[in-house]
Amino acid sequence: MANMKTAISIEKSLFEQMNALAKKSKISRSRLFAIAAREFMQRNTNIDLLKSLNAAYEDLPEIEPIVAKMRSTHYKIVKDQW
To answer: Which of 5, 51, 58, 80 is the most buried if burial means most Cβ atoms within 10 Å?
Structure first.
């Protein structure tokens, strides 16, 4: 995988925090920013996936009444086995 150089502008306090974390973690600032960017992208992907799943299931009936009926039926089936 090829690396690309880039320049970014961030608040001084954030830069100092990232610099301190990089030193504490014994990794370069560049590596730390790459990790942060990758995690941000993954979080964004997960949010998009969750939205897609919610959209796919939004037309299903409400689950709680179904679960309540299943519990009642299950209890009737197993009540004499305990």
So the answer is: 51
* Alpha carbon distance 48, 41 (integer Å): 11
Tens of pLDDT, residue by residue over 2-54, are 889 999 999 999 999 999 999 999 999 999 999 999 999 988 888 888 888 88
Q: What sections of 1-82 are H helices per DSSP?
A: 12-25, 29-57, 63-78
The answer to whether the pTM exceeds 0.70 is no
Across 7-28, b (16+ Cβ under 10 Å) vs e yields eeeeeeeeeeeeeeebeeeeee
CA distance 43 to 48: 9
Integer distance in angstroms from the first to the last C-alpha of the chain? 60
Handedness of CA 62, 64, 65, 67 (dihedral sign): positive
